[in-house]
Amino acid sequence: MNDKQHTIKAPVTVSGIGLHTGVVANMTFLPAPVNHGYKFQRIDLPGQPIVAADVDNVVDLSRGTTIEQNGARINTVEHTLAAMVGLQVDNILIQLDGPEPPIMDGSSIEFINALEEVGLEEQNALRNFFEIPQGIHYKDSEREVELAALPLNDYRVTVMVDYNSPVLGSQHASITAIDQFRDQIASSRTFCFLHELEALYKQNLIKGGDLANAIVVVDRVVTEEELSNLATLLNKPKVAVKKEGILNNVELRYKNEPARHKLLDLIGDLALVGRPLKGQILAARPGHAANVAFAKKIKKQMQEVAIQNVPVYDPTKEPVMDINKITQTLPHRFPFVLIDKIIYLDESTVIGVKNVTMNEMQFQGHFPANPVYPGVYQIESMAQTGGILVLSTVPDPENYWTYFLGVDKCRFRRKVIPGDTIIFKCWLLAPIKRGIAKMEGKAFVNGKVVMEAEMSASIVRKEGV
């Protein structure tokens, strides 16, 4: 797996009809900066609203995964997102001039081909993996659906499907590493059963469905009259059924292509947790509703881990921001630059590192015979760490000031002395509104809390910019 974040080198566009809406759309993939993640943009709507690929934005699971934010809706996102995960692309803006990504051939391979055509670009930031810390389970007994995520230092996925069908029977598909996705999973096409077809049309779905972009499994005897009606429904002169039970003699790309496509869907839906995963995913009879419910459980665990866990600092790993990048973002200068590294940063949490040395100016007058790192400096160090988080939410951080508004519930638990390495962890208590950020922070030395506080700050645009 890649350790560094990646985007694409140049914009690239694909075009086609949407599976369920039947609307022709152009979809353009654009490079995006570090920590941007996956975002869609409806450029055909007023204000060109952006929709983050986030499980909390899922609004419909009728036959695919639909997300909505800022008054804009994107239908059937799973095949597009699976391509991003499979190529290990972290940051991308996906512009659409319609409500749904093109279905293309019903798989992810044409998206991957387009992205590989322009190439990937490594970015100077570490990937923000979420490593499954312990077993996470989801079960729907009524539908006999079960999913589990287990700890593993890789991304391994196994899917079992059983449709009680003489045509498909029980099928399995798996990958033991995410870099197998492109060659083993990406070209597996979407499918449905014949008995579902008319119902989907009546639900105003699969308006863009075609035998060129979907496999129709015939799981019962079909009369010539029914075949004629199907031809009318699909706007085809004629349709037929081959003995294997696939409508119109479509050749399967793999004997277990349906199971592989279910694995593709699962990877696309789990992309909605917002971070690349490390873990083993086991899924029995998954579907979009179960996938999204499972993704929500993973995201909840992710948030709990981010708040509760003691940060782990590995000095051998390249930081997200070194001192040069920190001083490009924060206005502070000697002798008041009080953090040395940022080792973690996402949309709600930041972790910074401060190495306390005897050479710092404050020790000349602050208990010189018994040097203790001053509490006010600890607060300021935490505030600077939180300032990085707040400034990461605006596109041009160099054009903003962050000002302290208040400190509450501040406690100093242990003294900090020269030679200590302080790990500051800050997280937002609520979304930033009207430029006001409220966050909680803890400071750790050797795995123990030395200081904690709640802080509020204001982000203000500099005059004249």
TrEMBL record:
GO molecular function per UniProt: (3R)-hydroxyacyl-[acyl-carrier-protein] dehydratase activity; metal ion binding; UDP-3-O-acyl-N-acetylglucosamine deacetylase activity
Cofactor(s) needed for function: Zn(2+)
Record InterPro entries: FabA_FabZ, FabZ, HotDog_dom_sf, Ribosomal_Su5_D2-typ_SF, UDP-acyl_GlcNac_deAcase, UDP-acyl_GlcNac_deAcase_C, UDP-acyl_N-AcGlcN_deAcase_N
Residues the record marks as active site: 288 (proton donor), 366
Pathway: Glycolipid biosynthesis; lipid IV(A) biosynthesis; lipid IV(A) from (3R)-3-hydroxytetradecanoyl-[acyl-carrier-protein] and UDP-N-acetyl-alpha-D-glucosamine: step 2/6
EC number: 4.2.1.59, 3.5.1.108
Reactions accelerated catalytically: a UDP-3-O-[(3R)-3-hydroxyacyl]-N-acetyl-alpha-D-glucosamine + H2O = a UDP-3-O-[(3R)-3-hydroxyacyl]-alpha-D-glucosamine + acetate; a (3R)-hydroxyacyl-[ACP] = a (2E)-enoyl-[ACP] + H2O
Residues in coiled coil: none
Subcellular location: Cytoplasm
Binding site for Zn(2+): 79, 261, 265
Signal peptide: none
UniProt keywords, alphabetically: Cytoplasm, Hydrolase, Lipid A biosynthesis, Lipid biosynthesis, Lipid metabolism, Lyase, Metal-binding, Zinc
Any single Pfam family the record assigns to this protein: FabA
GO terms, biological process: fatty acid biosynthetic process; lipid A biosynthetic process
Classification via PANTHER family: UDP-3-O-ACYL-N-ACETYLGLUCOSAMINE DEACETYLASE 1, MITOCHONDRIAL-RELATED
Family: In the C-terminal section; belongs to the thioester dehydratase family.
Described purpose of this protein according to its UniProt entry: Involved in unsaturated fatty acids biosynthesis. Catalyzes the dehydration of short chain beta-hydroxyacyl-ACPs and long chain saturated and unsaturated beta-hydroxyacyl-ACPs.
Annotated protein name in UniProt: Multifunctional fusion protein
Organism: Adhaeribacter radiodurans
